[in-house]
Specification:
seven-stranded mixed beta sheet; two-stranded antiparallel sheet; 27% strand; globular; 7 helices; 9 strands
Length: 202
């Protein structure tokens, strides 16, 4: 799992220029933000969880080029075309439990023309490792017991109602409007599926 997380973040870092203003959707406690600040001019993180943001604020207190806001990824409080890069990784497109079309539409709105949006999901090749990771979380009481009758084909269902889905190339391709964007989908480290959306005209 550490290899998966590191490979995904490195992919993102390789696409950041020193002059970029970057937005991370669902920044949590700031683990990814901390790395983004080393490459970007300015980094902004948003999350719906105030406790996570308070933890991130403490973690990033000595970093001057990072700002944090509590807001929803589908109703961002930023002006149009504010960011060079918007990222939503670690399967946030599934984890946020919002309409993915709304998520992408709002991401396009705040991304500058010529800028990029990076979204990620899991590779099919990573199913066994991903499932084991969720088993460990269930055993630790972080999520409910896995419902093995409904868990299959990239979809993990727990008895407490928690569900984790997967976005493949076809799903990603159906979400971005071709009149406004160019799409590139790449598998990374046999674990992540990265969808890069270049904004033509936001």
């Amino acid at each position: 799992m550490k290899q998966y997380l590191d490979a995904e973040i490195q992919y993102v870092l390789n696409r950041i220029n020193s002059s970029d203003v970057v937005l991370e959707l669902g920044c949590g406690y700031g683990r990814v933000l901390e790395k983004l600040t080393l490459k970007a001019k300015q980094v902004v993180g948003i999350d719906t969880s105030r406790p996570n943001l308070m933890f991130a604020k403490k973690r990033l207190r000595n970093i001057s080029n990072c700002s944090l806001f509590q807001m929803d990824a589908v109703t961002l409080g930023f002006l149009d075309r504010s960011f060079d890069l918007v990222i939503c990784i670690q399967n946030g497109i599934s984890a946020f439990k919002v309409d993915p079309r709304d998520l992408i539409s709002e991401s396009i709105r705040v991304t500058r023309t010529g800028g990029n949006i990076l979204l990620s999901s899991y590779s099919e090749k990573f199913w066994k490792e991903r499932l084991k990771w969720f088993e460990l979380q269930a055993e630790a009481g972080l999520i409910g017991e896995i419902d093995w009758g409904q868990t299959r084909e990239g979809r993990i269902v727990c008895r407490d109602g928690f569900k984790a889905t997967t976005f493949g190339p076809a799903e990603f391709s159906s979400l971005a409007p071709p009149s406004q964007t160019e799409l590139n989908i790449e598998e990374v480290d046999d674990s992540s599926l990265l969808c890069e959306i270049k904004v033509r005209n936001s």
